[in-house]
Amino acid sequence: MTTLYHYWLSQGSRFIRLLLAEKGIGFDLALTKPWAPGESFLSLNPSGWPPVLAPGGGVPALADARAIAEYIDERHPQPVMLGQNAVARAEVRRLVGWFDYKFAVEVSDTLLFERHYRGMIRAGAPDPTAIRTARTNIRFHLDYIGHLSERRRWLAGDEMSLADLMAAAHLSVVDYLGEAPWDEFQEARQWYSRMKSRPSFRPLLADRVAGLAPPAHYDDLDF
Amino acid sequence: MTTLYHYWLSQGSRFIRLLLAEKGIGFDLALTKPWAPGESFLSLNPSGWPPVLAPGGGVPALADARAIAEYIDERHPQPVMLGQNAVARAEVRRLVGWFDYKFAVEVSDTLLFERHYRGMIRAGAPDPTAIRTARTNIRFHLDYIGHLSERRRWLAGDEMSLADLMAAAHLSVVDYLGEAPWDEFQEARQWYSRMKSRPSFRPLLADRVAGLAPPAHYDDLDF
Known about the structure:
Helix content of chain A: 40-55%
Oligomer: homodimer
Shape of chain A: globular
Mean pLDDT of chain A: 97
Strand content of chain A: 5-15%
Largest sheet of chain A: 4 strands, mixed
Number of strands of chain A: 4
């Protein structure tokens, strides 16, 4: 049986949960805390970060969200999530990288640390400047999602791809924190609404972290 | 002709320069400044970040270091740089991600910003706390490189791979800044010495940025 070591609000973990569901692969979840990974998790991934995928069947545990996604896609090529040719795959991977890195450092990692992890490690009060910067930065990214979805059916082209899953995974964490200003970004909202409506997304909308309630619209498909 | 839009001290740009050279692909360099990308570069990559690869022959410009590397590897599979099977590829990609993200946010992006980019955008004096944290963090990473290279011929296994190129690209930037404490990490130094000796590495050792001289050992193969 495939096991995914994850944390509820880890963006990369949510990305892999979406991908496994879209590929129709059954899996168990095992919880790990990014702020206190523990020895047994560190033996699976010395970085201490989820996600880690244990595919079973003698395959060693795999770490890094993008590496795990490439592995899953290679072993389960259908449905196509990585593009039909090398140029299309480069565009999917560019946008996967955009959210996995640029959006992470500019928006989602900051908000997650300031609004959640900081409390878990008792690292003092949130830094208002960091939060304010992330809240400014997200507007640029939501505008870019709107720009892409005006020109394409999905973010990387005509087919839904890993780019949509990575973007939606990051946005879903920001949305859980009540930090996505959807009202001002209607195209991005429409794209996110389509993502939210997919059966693969349902489990994410049921996630709840103790002491950190999402806004009322979080699991509303007509938000 | 293939053109690589790069910046001298951009870690991802150096990674792609190494990869193109290892694959035996000729290319021109075009300079872009990450702190002031300009309209024409932004039209190639809205993130504003090098590297961007323009492969020519009607192929659109490609962005994101990992996406570019996958494209190059798919079009030029020899020599093998991504592993011989899906599990080996997952390990290569895990370590590529380790340096492209974890090492970047914990060490190299911080040092590059504080010691170089901050001056270019006149953003005030370096933050001593950020520099001190990065100098502490690098020890963990050099220790991990040593751990890996005691157990394997190269970082991801028996063959040199994209993992070595990504790690060496990041380390080379840190080394240019005089921030790599090689004396305390002999295994990591030996691995880096092997990387430095490769013909693909020579052009990187000749890079010089105005107003920011590297330490004397930077281009010394017997450092």
